[in-house]
Design a protein that fits this description.
The complex is a heterodimer of chains A (about 250) and B (about 290). Chain A has about 250 residues and is an alpha/beta fold. Chain A contains eight helices and nine strands. The longest helix of chain A is centred in the C-terminal third of the chain and has 19 residues. Chain A starts with a helix and ends with a helix. Chain B is mainly alpha-helical and about 290 residues long. Helices cover about 80% and strands about 0% of the residues of chain B. Chains A and B meet through helix 3 and helix 6 of A and helix 1, helix 8 and helix 9 of B.
Chain lengths: ~250, ~290
């Protein structure tokens, strides 16, 4: 399999070199350097004001950097948000087909691909539903299928499960982990939930707040699949939480 | 449930949770029941209006040849709607209304799209459009008659100038209020230029556009009625002209008949717009 080879070769697919972002006089990101290897799952963790969402926008090319370099190696990058942000005038399948339509893929091929993607996110047979008829967790899976329809091999996720209830979130962790493996994705996942970061990530990158800087890079070596309530995850999360709290306390006046 | 439950425990849990969370189809009752629920208040309102009208007539406030009672008007109306001549008038008026409104929609849409696309244009004429919208359309007729004489063009001019600003404003506010997250999704999906309008901006502004159309229709219908009373094109026996004739002959009952006809047409068209609006809201999940 090419994945394992690639993972062994340690090809960087996302490379940030001293990236800074300034909004007027506010420095949101200060010389952030970060590399993500092919097939790696990296969680960005930080308190409010650490610029983690800004970072994803920059990598996705939605926003201009103020300094430094970003290299995504010419890959297809997609970005998912906390809201699924599906278009209500399209059916579920229509939403998934939209990136294909924009690329000029023919109707029959679009249909087939949408079916496959629905299967991957375990929503087979629900293509004709309207987005509002689905639950929040199902909508996020549709958004994931839409991202996959972009042929994205780098997936940026901005607190995608932040608005979901705990049980749905746990299930989606399992599903995301499976899809990440099966589809050979590289994931950059932003969250403020420490356990979620430890549950999902190969690495957890801790950012400081105002301005955002990389302060720690924790490798998470436990075998997968993991459980969010396992003692290993809890121990590691406690350690990272302490470090995060120390960082947040620094801002008290 | 169509989801496959054959495989792993993880798949089964996901499928189970999905099944629990899928919205149940709500029972909205039988068609007859729903119709009755929305109809009886309207019938009651009509009955009340008729009752008050009849009471005023009975009070002897005005002689009956000036203010006839509901029974007389109903009889005249019944006689009127079976004549081919009456339907010719309705057809003429409706043709004018539809053609005028369609032209207003085309012009208003182009205008709205242009204004929301080019910032200087918005600065220049954005508030002018709203100003035009508040202007009573009857104010335009003297100018229209000078420009186009007594002709169909004079009527169309006023109908269009009355309705186009509403259509334009509906589109402009629809485009202005496209949610930011949708715009970001558009960016992520790499939408640009025409495709961005075709697949994102225009569909997203549809609800506001429809209410603009509805308001535009109301304005064009009003302008048309004013026009038919003021600009009497020789040989064109529209509803307005017939109403004027009835007044000239002091046929109060016939005048009221035409008022009822205009009211009914207005209500029927409004029902069409409401149906379109409701269908859209249901598809988008904006209703409960």
């Amino acid at each position: 399999m090419t994945v394992t080879e690639d993972r062994d070769l340690r090809t960087d697919v996302v490379r940030l070199g001293n990236v800074s972002k300034r909004y007027g006089s506010l420095l949101a990101l200060d010389r952030v350097s970060l590399s993500v290897r092919k097939g790696e799952f990296v969680c960005l963790l930080g308190a409010s004001g650490c610029g983690k969402s800004t970072l994803l926008s920059l990598v996705a090319g939605l926003d201009q950097i103020s300094g430094g370099t970003i290299d995504v190696d010419g890959r297809h990058v997609s970005l998912m948000f906390q809201e699924a942000a599906l278009f209500p005038w399209l059916t579920v399948a229509g939403n998934i087909e939209l990136p294909l339509r924009l690329r000029g893929v023919g109707r029959a091929d679009r249909r087939r691909r949408a079916e496959e993607l629905l299967e991957i996110v375990r929503l087979r047979g629900l293509g004709r539903k309207r987005p509002h008829e689905l639950s929040g967790g199902m909508r996020q899976r549709v958004a994931l299928a839409r991202a996959l329809a972009q042929d994205a091999d780098v997936l940026l996720m901005d607190e995608p499960f932040g608005a979901l209830d705990a049980m749905t979130r746990d299930l989606l962790h399992d599903e995301l982990e499976r899809i990440w493996r099966e589809q050979e994705l590289t994931v950059l996942f932003v969250t403020h939930n420490v356990r979620e970061a430890v549950r999902l990530g190969d690495r957890v990158v801790l950012l400081s707040s105002r301005p955002g800087r990389v302060i720690e890079d924790y490798p998470i070596g436990y075998g997968r699949p993991r459980r969010i309530d396992s003692p290993e995850v809890a121990t590691r999360a406690a350690e990272i939480t302490d470090r995060l709290r120390a960082e947040v306390a620094r801002h008290a006046h | 449930m169509p989801t496959d439950v054959s495989t792993s425990p993880q798949a089964r849990t996901t499928a189970g949770l999905d099944a629990l969370e899928l919205a149940e189809a709500t029972d909205r009752g039988s068609l007859g029941r729903r119709l009755w629920r929305s109809t009886w208040p309207k019938l009651l309102a009509v009955a009340l209006v008729l009752a008050v009208w009849q009471l005023v007539v009975w009070s002897g406030w005005k002689p009956e040849y000036v203010l006839p009672g509901p029974a007389i008007v109903a009889a005249d109306l019944k006689g009127l709607v079976v004549t081919a001549d009456f339907w010719d008038g309705v057809r003429l008026t409706m043709t004018r209304a539809v053609v005028g409104f369609a032209a207003a929609v085309v012009i208003g849409t182009l205008l709205g799209a242009a204004v929301s696309r080019f910032a200087p244009l918005r600065a220049a004429i954005g508030s002018l459009i709203t100003g035009l919208q508040t202007m009573p359309s009857i104010m335009w007729f003297p100018l229209a008659i000078l420009l186009f004489q007594i002709s169909e063009s004079a009527i169309f001019f006023v109908v269009i100038i009355g309705a186009a600003p509403s259509v334009a404003n509906g589109l402009i506010s629809g485009i202005d209020y496209v949610p930011r997250t949708w715009l970001r999704v558009g960016q992520v999906l790499g939408m640009r230029g025409f495709g961005r309008y075709r697949h994102l901006i225009l569909p997203a502004s549809l609800p506001s556009f429809i209410s603009g159309l509805k308001q535009g229709w109301a304005f064009s219908w009003r302008s048309l009625m004013a026009g038919e009373l003021l600009v009497i094109v020789p040989g064109a026996l529209s509803i307005g002209v017939r109403m004027q004739q009835a007044r000239d002959l002091t046929e109060a009952s016939l005048v009221i008949c035409y008022i009822v006809v205009v009211l009914v047409i207005g209500i029927l068209v409004d029902l069409l717009f409401n149906a379109a609006d409701r269908a859209l809201r249901r598809r988008w999940g904006l209703t409960s």
